[in-house]
Amino acid sequence: MSVDQYRATFRGCPINASRHKPESIKATLQRLADATGDDEQIDNYGRGELIESFEREVAALLGKEAALFMPSGTMAQPMALRIWADLARTDYVALHATSHVALHEHNSYQVLWQLKGCELGESHRVPLLDDLKAAARDPLAAVLLELPMREIGGQLPQWDELVRQSDWARAQGIKLHMDGARLWQCPAAYEKSLADIAALFDSVYVSFYKDLGGIAGAMLVGDADFIARAKVWQRRVGGTLYALYPYVIAAREGLAQHLAAMPERRDNARWLAEQLNRLPGVTTWPAVPQTNMFRLHIRCNPPIFLEQGVRWMQQHQIGIIPPPYRVDDDALHCEISVGNAFDLLTREQWQEWIREFGEAMLTDNQ
Asked: Could you tell me if 142 and 175 are in contact, meaning their C-beta atoms sit under 8 angstroms apart?
């Protein structure tokens, strides 16, 4: 049994514990059409009231002067670093080892954007101020910090530590850029507003398809000069598409639908992790989630688990353990991000299904 088969079966379940409720393409497009005003017009090469009003909305939400809608974060983030590098006249930027820019983009920040990376901290933990100081042995243009940090289970630095890092960077003339792909999860953890958090950073990237259920799309946010420079770069790299209105409308609706639910989803993630930690051979990272995402380590015989898991999901039409992102000889590693799919069942119903899943799948599979 392959991971691909397990993944297809999990995605085919009408009820699952991770991400958002399944929705057909037709239903998605109909919902977005219904959310579009009769007098709204398509954007054209990044211009028009539809896209510009949404940019103003997100900029205000994050307490920044301006924002720019972009097709992807893979385009947006190295662009931000390139802008800061040009202004600082140095190509050095500091990145955590688990940064998406360093880990999942085939070194495009070096190959395409001609930036030089300095590793920040250790891969298994959040960066500390001492790590920033150590990375600054080279003349840094910018430091990229991810909030929350996906590859270590959605962990965050302590608020006071983050403030110290921001104050130090500004005192050194080093720009602080936020990978805020999942920034929407952070206010509940910090008990701060989005603007409070963004105020510690010179530029911010946010994503609209992860927590907010959009089709695709991202946004860079910062001061007016930064965004003016980003518009030039967006044109240079082919990011000024003829029209982006389906992505803009989906992002706008996702923000309206999902943002207010983030605190409850964090609570659900903490509850869910507590239940899963009771299963034999299962541990979450972190033990108590800080945000509405966490990672799972399942000690098992992977081929047997995958085969039995497919049969169990086919029988019950419920997905509890998402497909693994890594398979070891004696363990699976998975990730859960709680969205509105969790709301399809009550906690009591989830608890019963988790108990049944553990008895069927894990008791003898250690």
From this structure: yes
pTM exceeds 0.90 for this model: yes
How far, in Å, CA of 169 to CA of 174, rounded? 5
Residue 47: phi and psi, rounded to 5, are -120, 155
Note the pLDDT of residue 362. 72
Which tokens go with 274? 């507590």
Of 282, 263, 283, the closest CA to residue 338 belongs to 263
Query: 139-186: per-residue pLDDT in tens?
Result: 999 999 999 999 999 999 999 999 999 999 999 999 999 999 999 999
| Distance, CA of 345 to CA of 275 (rounded, Å) | 15
* Side-chain half-sphere exposure of 261, counting CA atoms within 13 A: 19
